[in-house]
Amino acid sequence: MDILTRKIIFVGGKGGVGKSTTAAALAVKLAHTGYKTLLISTDPAHNVGHVFDMEIGGKVKKVAGNLYATEIDPDIETANYIKGVKENIKKVVHSGMMEEVHRQLDTAKASPGADEAALFDRLITIILEEREK
């Protein structure tokens, strides 16, 4: 199975093993092969910008040719995710309980997995939006 035939490739691993470098190398290879390629980083250190020696940020940015990149900020995405949950929950929770619900949700921001859930939600949104282009 050739990894370069996949529509989506995830690169993961422990800190310091070369995830950003490997993902960037794959993205460059695919872009040079002629594929429109989007490199998405969820690393709070934002190493993708360092790899390409340019500011990337949270919007999809053209790096070169067929290569685009974005760096998702976990803190911003977690705050947006919790805000969205608060908006959605208003429709199902009695108004007298909203203060307590908001307090619990604000506490949940610091819970294990909250950042990952928010990042995954944003990652899926980006993938779906970019497929439509």
Can you characterise this structure?
- The protein has 133 residues and is mainly alpha-helical.
- The chain is built from five helices and three strands.
- A hairpin with a 2-residue loop joins strand 2 and strand 3.
- The chain is elongated.
- It starts with 18 loop residues before the first helix and ends with a helix.
- The model has no long low-confidence stretch (mean pLDDT 89).
Question: What are the key terms here?
Answer:
mainly alpha; 2 domains; 3-stranded mixed sheet; 5 helices; 133 residues; 3 strands
Binned, the helix content reads 40-55%
Low-confidence stretches: none
Write the H/E string, N to C: HEHEEHHH
**Cα end-to-end separation:** 27 Å
Summarize the model shown:
With 133 residues, the protein is mostly helical. The chain has five helices and three strands; from the N terminus they run H-E-H-E-E-H-H-H. The protein folds into two domains: 69 residues, no CATH class; 60 residues, no CATH class.
Outline the secondary-structure elements.
Layout lengths: L18 H15 L3 E5 L5 H5 L9 E4 L2 E5 L2 H16 L8 H11 L5 H18 L2
Parallel strand pairs: 1-3
Antiparallel strand pairs: 2-3
